[in-house]
Amino acid sequence: MQTSTTVSRVLAALALFAATPAAADALVDNVTGVALDKDGRVIRFTGILMSPDGKVVKLMQRGDKRPERLDWRADMKGKVAIPGMIDAHGHVMDLGFRALSLDLFDTTSLEQAKAKLAAYAAANPQRPWIVGGGWNQEVWKLGRFPTAADIDAVTGNRPVWLQRADGHAGLANTAAMRAAGITARTATPAGGRIEKGANGQPTGVFVDGAMDLIAKHLPPPTARDRDAAFLKAQEALLSAGITATADMGTEVDDWLTYRRMGDQNLLRVRIMAYSAGVDPAIKIGGQGPTPWLYADRLRMGGIKLYADGALGSRGAWLKAPYADSPGNSGLGFLKDDQLLNLMSRGAMDNFQIAVHAIGDRANAQVLDAIDELSESYKGDRRWRIEHAQIVDPVDLPRFGRNGTIASMQPVHESSDWRMAEARLGPARLGGAYAWAQMLRVGSRLAFGSDYPVENPNPFVGWAVAFTRLDANGEPFGGWRPEDRVTREQAWKAFTSDAAYAGFAESKFGTLAPGLRADFVIVDRDPTEVSQTDLRGTRVLETWVGGEKMWAAK
């Protein structure tokens, strides 16, 4: 009888244990939790129950009984918890190297940039080259590109190479051009432009495909340099509340850096890598995408290609000439058959294809290629067009075909609207930064920032997306306000749809049972504040896979 009683007690205990989730070993409790369900509706919760492998078991409600046996419990004392933000288009290593080099992003005039350049040169006498970036002649209100002559006086005989904010042009001083052997006779590479003065001499600015004429002469970074740059970038992303990012343009050396970090248990942010062209993808993945590595923190799943340049440097490929540069329609990087061949080469090995296209001619070219390739490559391909900034309205409905994803960056609109008007004129803006129209034709939006071209702060991009206002609240009522999306649509594009765009929706992207417990503790409820207050959201803690990876000091 005693034995029977003991067995009954054991069975009762097992039944009680089975009544709670078997893998529920941790609880982040007492949160003001806000997320979106699979249909994009706001849901609320008060706790996140997690398994030992860092996945969500259950979102707890106020009246739910908490498990009595836990490995650990964290009390958030009512702070706001939201799903981790995802940047669908960034450049991880560029962000890190920008932090380690001369950063001109905050300069508002040429004179201010020259002062920073002189100070940096004096503080870093051991560097053989001065390297940096972030300049923007539009912000400087210069009315022209800067020149080598503008900076020679403060740099002397040390070579200088400074990339424009968008990464599609660079400024070299005379010493750098001399080191690279650049003369008036230097041939302009395909897909590039060497800016020249009235005397035919290079002025120091090299656009798109011409940038490599200088860049290939830079001292290559060491593995230690790369590790340091990655850690800087990772810190910046986690501190912004970004738990996952697409890395657009991963080189083999970048991949090796991510693998070193993963092997040393230092990889904390999730990276969806898109190789810089076909060759790195084949070298890294062999005959197709890699598996997910390091508990879903790293995968090479796609290939990044370029159809054109950028609007700011007048390298975006347009159907008609620029309104402010007659005779110049920008730069198409690839002939139609070349683009088709590259996309086909990647697609045949099941790599996802993502193509940079900013101008309306470039977007049309990529849409043509997708239409043709979709006849041969069936199934769930999720073709991506990166930026899709200027689209001819007649081409917009084509984004709703073939599962094409519009991977766009709201902050570009707030930075570019004045320039876009000058570059195109008012009659050609019907498909410019057309987020709402993309959704109406059936495309799926994936939002990001294009860091370090822009600041990676996702809350700024989120605010821009549903207001179309810049940091100064301009223009009144929003620029082309008919293309605003709702607050919830914008949030979805920065979370679950950004994950979907990287074939990661079964791994992460929101807070739901079975997905990785990636979340952010913030100082305000982003669904209940003004757009101005949303921009000022402060990240307090960032958790990836149920582990606290960053906390504000």
UniProtKB/TrEMBL annotation:
Could you tell me the superkingdom of the organism this chain comes from? Bacteria
Q: Which Pfam families match?
A: Amidohydro_3 (PF07969)
Look up keyword Signal and say if it applies.
yes
Entry keywords, A to Z? Signal
Domain spans labelled Amidohydrolase: 75-547
So where does this one cross the membrane?
none
The UniProt entry, under InterPro entries, shows:
Amidohydro_3, Metal-dep_hydrolase_composite, Metal_Hydrolase, YtcJ-like
Entry keyword annotation includes Cell membrane? no
Q: Which CDD domains match?
A: YtcJ_like
Please list which residues make up the signal peptide. Answer: 1-24
What this protein is called in its record is Amidohydrolase family protein
Organism this protein belongs to: Sphingomonas donggukensis
